[in-house]
Design a protein that fits this description.
This protein is mostly helical and 459 residues long. The protein contains 19 helices and 6 strands. It has a two-stranded antiparallel sheet with strand order 1-2. The protein has a two-stranded parallel ribbon with strand order 3-4. Helix 3 crosses helix 8, helix 10 runs parallel beside helix 12 and helix 11 packs antiparallel against helix 12. The longest helix is centred in the N-terminal third of the chain and has 37 residues. 39% of the residues are buried. Bound molecules: arginine.
């Protein structure tokens, strides 16, 4: 394809250099945004009499045809073009001649590419936010179903205190809710229009940047043209928000992997979201969760790549910035894929209540409650803690659990112990006594569920 910038040079570059320079292989993803941005630009040029209304109409109608032709497959990308912007402009010019050449008045690819990317990311944040809502919804449904099912809560991966599966799941619902809020906040800064900043310094034409921004659904415009064409903070923020989503998915994945092992058997993932082994017939592998955990590294890499591209760049636009898109596209696609799989995987996962309860019963996770029992009878906590520790030691020696030590054995440790201690260390009592806000009692978990459901509806 002939070089649009032929003039200063003869436009002849080496094929290797052309390929190296070209971005159409990936920025073709933004064809819709590029065309819509150009239509708004042409409308503004016409409205401000920078070009005639008739020319603006012809450009807009032809761009509309180009969009339909690309969508129907009648027109395909020419990968010898330098980028999507040059490709669309050259098709336009090939269809309507000199009038097409007027579109690029009072515009540069520098503000054009920033515009396209912001428009693209606005859409992506909405898609990801909706998927997060779907995931929160399936988590909340499961939490509701298992709000009374006791499992061991862990610290240091050692059994610590009893919690319910509902409580544990709601922890993830809270994380994904914050992720949604983060995306919403990040979208505020994506939703600012750079078009009209032109190459770097603004323009001598009497343009109307607000008109263009409004046409394209932007809330505001970039107020410094140098910043407008060189700001990629919105990409960094988007990638940060996505990285945090991946941290949450990865931690959740890790637990699902652990919980579906023979050693735990707290959950069973549906056959549809596991795989077998090519050699070991007994295997049912949690590949989807493992892949999500693994893909987290990619998204972090995309964030790190973006930060590194930007760190040494002088103002304003530099070609380095063409490297912004692949990472952003990759991260977005990765997160969308992971979330889509997760929604279904969680929805179809079975929970083994009995195995969780068995695990909760074997690890002295009611030892804190035993100490609290003595505290309620007047003993200082540190002394009570010591006696509860001695009770655990005795259990280990005798092969018992706290529930099966006899009252005489307890009384030998402290004469404050009475028959009612057994009710206090019953796991269900332990859970239901934790009525503090955010705690694991059924009522506290119900309140958490209510809160998250309300946030999902009312934002
Ligand atoms: N393909 C370029 C990019 O993605 C478009 C902007 C090119 N601008 C320029 N002055 N060469 O950044």
């Amino acid at each position: 394809m002939a070089k649009m910038w032929e003039g200063r040079t003869d436009g002849v570059t080496d094929k290797l250099a052309d390929d190296f320079n070209s971005s159409i292989h990936f920025d073709c993803k933004m064809y819709k945004q590029d065309i819509e941005g150009s239509m708004a630009h042409a409308l503004m040029l016409g409205a401000k009499n920078i070009i005639s209304k008739a020319d603006a109409d012809l450009i807009i109608n032809t761009l509309q045809d180009i969009l339909s032709d690309l969508q129907s497959g009648k027109l395909t990308f020419d990968y010898s073009a330098e980028d999507i912007h040059m490709f669309i402009e050259s098709v336009l010019t090939s269809r309507i001649g000199d009038v097409g050449k007027k579109l690029h008045t009072a515009r540069s690819r520098n503000d054009q590419v920033a515009l396209d990317l912001r428009m693209y990311l606005k859409e992506q944040t909405d898609i990801i936010s909706d998927l997060l809502s779907d995931l929160i919804e399936v988590i909340v449904n499961k939490a509701e179903e298992y709000k009374k099912d006791i499992m061991p809560g862990y610290t240091h991966l050692q059994r610590a205190q009893p919690v319910t599966m509902g409580h544990h799941l709601m922890a993830y619902a809270m994380m994904f809710l914050r992720d949604k809020a983060r995306l919403k906040d990040c979208k505020k800064r994506i939703n600012v229009s750079p078009i009209g900043c032109c190459a770097l310094a603004g323009t001598t034409y009497d343009t109307d940047r607000y008109f263009e921004a409004e046409q394209l659904g932007f809330e505001d415009i970039c107020l410094n043209s140098l910043d407008g064409v060189s700001d990629r903070d919105f990409c960094v923020e988007f990638l940060s928000a996505l990285s945090i989503i991946m941290v949450h998915l990865s931690r959740f994945s890790e637990e699902l992997i652990l919980w579906s092992s023979w050693e735990f058997k707290f959950v069973e993932l549906s056959n549809a979201y596991t795989t077998g082994s090519s050699i070991m017939p007994q295997k049912k592998n949690p590949d989807m969760a493992e892949l999500a955990r693994g893909k987290t590294g990619r998204v972090f890499g995309d964030l790190m790549g973006m930060l590194t591209v930007l760190k040494g760049l002088p103002l304003a636009y530099n070609k380095d910035m063409q490297e912004d898109k692949e990472g952003v596209f990759d991260a977005s696609e990765t997160v969308i894929n992971c979330l889509s799989v997760f929604v279904k995987m969680i929805d179809t996962m079975k929970i083994n209540k009995q195995n969780m309860l068995n695990a909760a019963g074997g690890g002295f996770i009611n030892a804190t409650d035993l100490a609290d029992y003595l505290v309620k009878k007047g003993m200082p906590f540190r002394s009570a803690y010591k006696i509860a520790g001695q009770a655990v030691k005795l259990c280990i020696e005798k092969g018992k659990i706290l529930e099966t030590l006899s009252l005489d054995e307890y009384k030998a440790l402290s004469d404050l112990f009475e028959e009612d201690l057994y009710n206090e260390i019953n796991l269900e009592t332990c859970v239901n006594k934790r009525v503090s806000v955010g705690g694991t009692s059924f009522t506290s978990v119900e309140n958490q569920i209510k809160y998250v459901k309300d946030k999902l509806i009312n934002g």
